[in-house]
């Protein structure tokens, strides 16, 4: 199914003629688009919080997967051509408007609220319109290029398979409102649409998935993770609103500080070594291997990391709204499992990313996963602050281990990536992270 590297060059040349391609880093327009996407991602926590049961969590994770697939298509388009040139800003702003509609309607993605537009159908239509953007740009650019029509067919096949399933899923409760299994069938159709979209991503040959700029690709993914971490911090600040925004107490302050420690550790575990080592590894590969690694390590394996942050944000919201005696009953087994599960899922995604990108099994990451899984039964019987303290200690072991037990290996890895860090970093990750904190305070 793969096409030749020269086929990809024809695709890039065709796009260049139409939208004035120019090499460069991540543009301000792409950062704006990422912020709108992360708004949609974080709204998934509202969907899961309103349906806080296993089926509700599955629904939320499916929405996260669909949003991620959509974001990847725009990241690839931005890697192929500058999105701030020619007619592209108009297309991006139109896509951002549709993404915003998707984010607004996420709480109604599976269940319509009365006295308004059908939420599930509006969500599905807006999502399909967002997915159309990159496909239309690539198709118009290459339609007259020799040998590129097979690429167009392959690129459109996932959406042609997933869009009818998604629209049918959204329409089913409207067509059969009294049918008892309707919501189960709706979930199955939604899952099938998500699966079809991702199978299409995997099925594209490496000739169709080549990267114009490795630096842009790595930076784009690191920024979406960074923004998601910032939004997770925001969830700490907004969690009190779940119980009527009661007064600040010492338990609120301590709980917020513990949640912040967890987020800082997860930030450090990615941006200390993995982010730069993966880009360095990607730069050294030939085109075909580079395309395959770029797709697997970034487009696929960053998904569990973002999904883990969404679950963590949901868990922190429930935790920090349950610190007082009057709200302690909100802290139950499900809340603990979501909180710890989000952190573990993020670390599992990071572990898989490191293994695939740089063939490294991070010992401290493995230690963190083992510790968090081992202490989860203990946390189930603890009050909110106790559970948060255990989580912070278990996650903090990742940093402590790299600074003590694995210090020698950690220092060697830092030496290996020093040249890449010095070359690609204009604003250091800790400065960007500090900016996210200031944004939260504002």
TrEMBL record:
InterPro entries according to UniProt: Low_temperature_requirement_A
Pfam families named in the record: LtrA
Signal peptide: none
Entry coiled-coil feature ranges: none
UniProt entry tagged with the keyword Transmembrane helix: yes
Transmembrane segments: 21-42, 57-77, 89-110, 122-143, 155-176, 182-202, 223-242, 248-271, 292-314, 334-353, 360-380, 386-406
Keyword tags: Membrane, Transmembrane, Transmembrane helix
Tree of life domain: Bacteria
Protein name: Low temperature requirement protein A
Organism: Micromonospora fulviviridis
């Amino acid at each position: 199914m793969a096409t030749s590297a020269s086929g990809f060059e024809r695709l890039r040349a065709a796009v260049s003629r139409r939208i004035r391609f120019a090499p460069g880093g991540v543009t301000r327009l792409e950062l704006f688009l990422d912020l709108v996407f992360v708004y949609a991602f974080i709204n998934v926590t509202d969907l899961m919080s309103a349906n806080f049961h296993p089926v509700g969590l599955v629904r939320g994770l499916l929405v996260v997967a669909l949003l991620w697939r959509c974001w990847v298509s725009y990241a690839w388009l931005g890697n192929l051509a500058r999105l701030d040139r020619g007619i592209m800003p108009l297309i991006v702003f139109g896509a951002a408007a549709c993404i915003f509609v998707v984010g607004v309607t996420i709480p109604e993605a599976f269940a319509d609220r009365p006295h308004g537009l059908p939420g599930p159908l509006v969500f599905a239509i807006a999502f399909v319109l967002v997915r159309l953007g990159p496909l239309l740009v690539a198709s118009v650019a290459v339609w007259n290029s020799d040998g590129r029509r097979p690429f167009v067919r392959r690129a459109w096949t996932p959406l042609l398979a997933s869009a009818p399933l998604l629209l049918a899923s959204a329409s089913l409760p409207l067509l059969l409102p009294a049918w008892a299994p309707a919501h189960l069938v709706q979930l199955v159709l939604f899952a099938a649409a998500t699966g079809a979209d991702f199978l299409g991503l995997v099925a594209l040959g490496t000739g169709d998935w080549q990267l114009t700029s490795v630096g842009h690709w790595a930076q784009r993914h690191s920024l979406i993770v960074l923004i998601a971490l910032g939004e997770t911090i925001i969830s700490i600040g907004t969690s009190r609103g779940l119980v009527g925004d009661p007064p600040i107490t010492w338990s609120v302050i301590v709980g917020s500080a513990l949640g912040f420690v967890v987020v800082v550790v997860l930030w450090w575990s990615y941006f200390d070594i993995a982010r730069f080592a993966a880009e360095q590894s990607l730069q050294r590969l030939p085109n075909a291997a580079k395309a395959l690694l770029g797709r697997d390590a970034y487009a696929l394996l960053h998904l569990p990391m973002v999904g883990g942050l969404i679950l963590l944000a949901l868990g922190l919201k429930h935790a920090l709204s349950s610190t007082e005696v009057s709200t302690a009953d909100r802290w139950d087994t499900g809340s603990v499992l979501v909180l710890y599960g989000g952190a573990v899922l993020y670390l599992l995604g990071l572990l898989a990313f490191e293994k695939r990108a740089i063939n490294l099994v991070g010992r401290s990451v493995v230690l963190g996963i083992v510790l968090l899984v081992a202490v989860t039964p203990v946390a189930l019987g603890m009050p909110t602050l106790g559970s948060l303290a255990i989580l912070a200690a278990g996650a903090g072991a990742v940093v402590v281990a790299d600074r003590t037990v694995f210090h020698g290996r950690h220092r060697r890895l830092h030496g290996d990536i020093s040249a890449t860090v010095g070359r690609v970093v204009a604003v250091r990750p800790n400065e960007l992270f500090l900016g996210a904190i200031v944004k939260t305070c504002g």
